[in-house]
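Q: I'm a student working through a structural biology exercise. My instructor gave each of us a protein and asked us to get a predicted structure, then write a short paragraph describing it. Mine is Odorant-binding protein 56e. I'm not confident about reading structure output yet, so if you can add a plain explanation after the tokens, that would really help. Here is the sequence I was given:
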Amino acid sequence: MVHFTSREEMRQKCMDQEGATQEDAEAVLKHLKSPESRAQKCFLACIFEHGRTSDGKRFVTEVFLEKGEKMSGNDQERLHSVREAAERCDGVENDDRCELAAEIVACLKDS
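A: Happy to help. First, here is the predicted structure for Odorant-binding protein 56e. I'll explain a few features afterward.
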């Protein structure tokens, strides 16, 4: 796996790799919209795979929990939300990596 020096570099590489536009990236990352187009879904698949919260076939609950716990710090309410989301989304799988990304987003939004 390629390691990136910054989030911006990862974002740009995923945009290039998946054929996503700046607008696609902003729609799903900045505006937190559910991915609609194939490019948006595949862009998120790339982001999730590089963040290791997806292996391209399933949601990787353990990595999501690890990252979420670090980001939560001492905020018990946020930590509880992260754990609930991880439990709810555990088992999300799809052979299509792009559709998997859309299903992960949908599950996390429902949490």
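A: Here are two points you could use in your paragraph. The chain has one domain: 7-109. The mean pLDDT is 92. It's a good idea to check both against the output above yourself.
Q: Great, thank you!
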